[in-house]
Amino acid sequence: MKDGEFTDRAAIVTGGAKGIGLAVAKRILENGGKVALWDVDDEGLAARVSELGSPPGLVATTVDVSSEASVSVAHANTVGAIGPIDLLVNSAGIIGPTVPTVSYALPDWKKVIDIDLTGVFLCSKTIAPGMAERGFGRIVNIASIAGKEGTANAPAYSAAKAGVIAFTKAMSKEMLNTGVLINCIAPGPIETEMVANADPKHVEIMILKCPMARLGTAEEVAAMTCWLLSEECSFNSGACFDLSGGRAVY
Ligand code: NAD
What we know:
It comes from Nisaea acidiphila. InterPro entries: NAD(P)-bd_dom_sf, Sc_DH/Rdtase_CS, SDR_fam. By secondary structure, the chain is α/β, with parallel strands linked by helices. It has a single domain (10-242), classed as NAD(P)-binding Rossmann-like Domain (Rossmann fold, 3-Layer(aba) Sandwich), CATH 3.40.50. 46% of the residues lie in helices and 15% in strands. The chain is built from 9 helices and 7 strands, in the order βαβαβαβαβααβαααβ. A 7-stranded parallel β-sheet has the order 3-2-1-4-5-6-7, with helices on both faces. Helix 2 (42-51) links the parallel strand 2 (34-39) and strand 3 (58-62). Helix 1 crosses helix 9 and helix 3 packs parallel to helix 4 (106-134). It is globular. The chain starts with 9 loop residues before the first strand and ends in a 7-residue tail after the last strand. The mean pLDDT is 97. Bound molecules: nicotinamide-adenine-dinucleotide. Residues 14-15, 17-21, 39-41, 44, 63-66, 91-94, 115, 142, 144, 187, 189-190, 192-195 line the site of nicotinamide-adenine-dinucleotide.
């Protein structure tokens, strides 16, 4: 990826108020792009914009990615603020409760699926048509190794992330001749608030399972994401890339 890769590009990063989404947004900005941080956490958004010094080309939009109406309004406002969108990163997500399937409550199941899977569908279906009209677009969906191997006591999260991987493959095939390339990343445990809030014993087990014996960083996810958003990524679509410190997940 060349320096200034995203000059004249406009990006939407969902879940941009923290963690992986924020790291991706910073990297796009550093490389000349305009970025809309999309998040449900309005206080977090305001804090991030102020911490980043309100640079030109950065906007923040409060949105619930699981609501079609909210995504539609956010999209219209964002295009009004930074122009037509070239790049979309679907990073918004929640892990949900850590509960075995037999005790998992239906409202919790629905909430995780609505945000982690339906949110990716709604943002993609709303934003991709404009990309296709202009003949260029890149979409990166942040899945998880949980979607490939299944994580015990996180049935909804695992199912949602498996859905994101399959959705990426399906939609990418529909868009192949439009210049819109759609890929996803399956990270292992990454050092963000999502993992900081997990049971420390569980985090220890995650590290033991990693051949590199550590958590990944949001910056490492951002580096791979930004390559997939770049023009250098020209012969990949519908792929899922592991980012897991050598942990092989099939
Ligand atoms: P995080 O909790 O730090 O950030 C997630 C962001 O999504 C938050 O800012 C949150 O407010 C936002 N969000 C939640 N619900 C939303 C909604 N309905 N609408 C809009 N925004 C919403 O998490 P993270 O670690 O940065 O995770 C980012 C993505 O990466 C998630 O999809 C997660 O599943 C995935 N992932 C994370 C890890 C990890 O170990 N951290 C590993 C694999 C995959």
